[in-house]
Amino acid sequence: MSNFMSSSDKVQVDDGIPSEVSKVNQQSVTITLHSEADTQALAERLAKLPLSGSVWLAGDLGAGKTTLTRYWLQALGHIGAVKSPTYTLVEPYSIQQSDGTVKPVYHADLYRLQDPEELSFIGFDEYLDEPDALVIIEWASRADSYLPPPTLFIDMTQGKDEARQVEIRLSKVGQAQGLNLAALTI
Questions:
Q1: How far is it, in rounded angstroms, from Cα 162 to Cα 47?
Q2: If you ran DSSP here, which 8-state letter would residue 100 be given?
Q3: CB within 8 A of 178, min separation 6: which ones?
Q4: What is the pLDDT of residue 18?
Q5: How far apart are CA 159 and CA 60, in angstroms?
Q6: Is the CB of residue 152 less than 8 Å from the CB of residue 169?
Q7: What percent of the chain has pLDDT over 90?
Q8: Terminus-to-terminus CA distance in the chain, angstroms?
Q9: How far apart are CA 66 and CA 131, in angstroms?
Q10: Do the beta carbons of residue 114 and residue 142 sit within 8 Å?
Q11: Is the dihedral of CA 110, 41, 35, 22 positive or negative?
Q12: CA–CA separation, 132 vs 137, rounded Å?
């Protein structure tokens, strides 16, 4: 596993596929993903972070938010299909951990949300208040006035040649939890 030291380093993921790292520090990292295998490798690294609270995924349609989430859920230990929450708003997962505990994970997609108050009607606060729960939210900007601050921001943009630029930033909440993004080496 490589440590990032300078801008635009080429590093190898475990499967030998190169990714470019534009910058990295303890609070933010920018990575260029060139393939779906790179996306899977990033998801595996995210799954190793001791995350709870919410993660806000941003990016245009087709940027890879749902694909990243699918691989992330699988890396956390979910077995089976990962459904898109586009029409249901939220898909819940109870993921058995190696220590015998169950990690509650919720995948939300707020793209079709008309009014942030709709989240109150479906009891969304309960997901956010659940101890040790991870709530991965696509299109969180549609309800940013309603939602509490996230632990982590992930912004995805699609570049040329199917490459995706991914910026991952800790919020003040994530910083207070002592999370370190330098561990996201791929």
A1: 24
A2: S
A3: none
A4: 39
A5: 11
A6: yes
A7: 58
A8: 7
A9: 24
A10: no
A11: positive
A12: 16
Average pLDDT, the chain: 84
In this structure, are strands 9-12 and 18-24 parallel, antiparallel, or unpaired? antiparallel
How long a stretch of residues is the chain? 186
- Give the whole-angstrom CA distance, residue 171 versus residue 27: 8
Give 134-160 pLDDT, tens digit per residue.
Answer: 999 999 999 999 999 999 999 999 887
Q: What is the pTM of this model?
A: 0.84
Paired tokens of 14: 């475990």
| Short-list 119, 133, 140, 107, CA closest to 51 | 133
Per-residue tokens: 59: 């990016």
* Bridge pairing between strands 53-59 and 152-158: parallel
Dist CA 40 CA 170 (whole Å): 20
Residue 72 and residue 55 in contact, taking contact as beta carbons nearer than 8 Å: no
